Amino acid sequence: QITLKESGPTLVKPTQTLTLTCSFSGFSLSTSGVGVGWIRQPPGKAPEWLALIYWDDDKRYSPSLKSRLTITKDTSKNQVVLTMTNMDPVDTATYYCAHLTGSFADYWGQGTLVTVSS
Amino acid sequence: EIVMTQSPATLSVSPGERATLSCRASQSVGSHLGWYQQKPGQAPRLLIFGASARATGIPARFSGSGSGTEFTLTISSLQSEDFAVYYCQQYNDWPIFTFGPGTIVDIK
């Protein structure tokens, strides 16, 4: 079965760079049509897509955050890494990774809460 | 960027009743529309994709309809476990997808 799990720091300081890792099982990111995406959800608000990467290394970024985001994959390790630079308190949110079949997210990780505070 | 809106913001329903949730896109997304359910402390769960196809394991009381800019999620007979927040999300518009603000379905 498909599972995903996010890992990374729970607390970062303003201006620091956040690095999150999505470790997954039950699928391969070398399979045609498969992707992994990152979504965040500030407390009490709707989810927001950040970035996604497909099996062929096609990468997409939120236009409003593109300058701060980098998404990469390590197919051999079954991992996807998201980095976000210049963190700010408004970036406090639960960060999820999700499996994409084509263009929709059908399996999600449990999420990890990241707080940005000095 | 395509903007998604949902109505109502909150829907109060009694168990066993029918619930109808609406989602509108600022421009056509074809049938590239999904519905998600989220309960407190949990990740969103995919209910519907392709505007009307139920995801694996989703009960038949959940149904989706619509295309273009107007979409509906119907829960035919609300069960206690269905009280949650529901989000629509378009996945038609590159480079990124967008969620609606959500509809809270709570107990009347």
Textual characterization of the structure:
The complex is a heterodimer of chains A (118) and B (108). Chain A is an all-beta fold. Chain A is globular. Chain A contains no helices and eleven strands. Chain B is built from no helices and eleven strands. Chain B has 108 residues and is mostly beta strands. In chain B, strand 9 (84-90) and strand 10 form a beta hairpin. The model of chain B has no long low-confidence stretch (mean pLDDT 94). At the A-B interface, strand 5 and strand 10 of A face strand 5 and strand 10 of B.
Task: Tell me the span between the first and last alpha carbons of chain A.
Answer: 40 Å
Instruction: State the total count of DSSP E strands of chain A.
Output: 11
The major sheet of chain B is characterized as: 7 strands, mixed
Quote the beta fraction of chain A.
over 45%
Mean pLDDT of chain A: 96
Sequence stretches where pLDDT stays below 50 over 5 or more residues of chain B: none
Determine the number of helices of chain A (DSSP H or I, runs of at least 4 residues). Answer: 0
Greatest interface (CB-CB under 8 A), with counts per chain: A-B, 20 and 26 residues
**What characteristic shape of chain A results from the CA principal axes?**
globular
Helix fraction bin of chain B:
under 10%
